[in-house]
Prior knowledge:
This protein is mainly alpha-helical and 282 residues long. It is built from 11 helices and no strands.
Amino acid sequence: MSNDGKIVSKPRPALSDFESLLVGAIGGTIETSIQMPLITWKICVQEGRPYPKGLREWYRGVFINASGVSPITAVQCFANSLLQKAVLSGKNRPLNDIENLSCSAGAGAISALIYGPIDLLVIQQQKYVASLSNTFNIIRKEYGIFRIYRGLLSTMVRESIYTMGYLGVAPVVQKRLSDFNPYFHEHYVITSVVSAMIGGTFASLLTHPVDTAKTCVQSDLTGQKYPTASWTLKHLYTKEGGGLHVLFKGVIPRTLRLCGACFVISQVRESMIHLKGYEQKD
């Protein structure tokens, strides 16, 4: 502890780009596999679709979602690492909070190029009750292959803020809590849970209206009911019986899911840092 009462943390080993990639791949696979029912719950609420009746139906699409989220989260962590190094090029100092948040947001926008099509396939797979390959073929034959990029811009907005939540807000909050409060410094798990809840709630509440519009747009491949995400946002808010509660449909399962994702990925990241620290000692 320093003279001004602040807790001085020991320098921690930095993860390489490849190690960041592994953190994202492992963390994304674990959190999606565990939390698939929350994803299904959110989609059903947002679309007004009946809830699945069997356990298997709650996990429909888990393979494409897990296999898709894993490389996406890996891309987000990898892109975040590259952007951080670019910002610090030639500078011998740590990132400040604004730089940390900006890099994580940029990483999320990049990942949307992959996540947009995967999100659309998951939504359509549950709608058609078909396999992944059959769903893709249906979309390709009826609408053309580029229709899988429907809702890309709204996905970029959502992923920028989401990635900022778990790669920016949660780590910043965790560090601040640990540095300025002895209790949080000594109780790592509690600190991780609190920071994950703050990061996940931040990401969920800020992006949920966009995510609701994106889900509607991606569920309507013809574009007749929901032409664009911006039009859909305005329509959902102003139509009869609308308002903020319509834009925040499914916010509870999505908030729970994002808090869980923040926690799981932060734990995987910390495990990787600790493992690297032990290797350096050896």
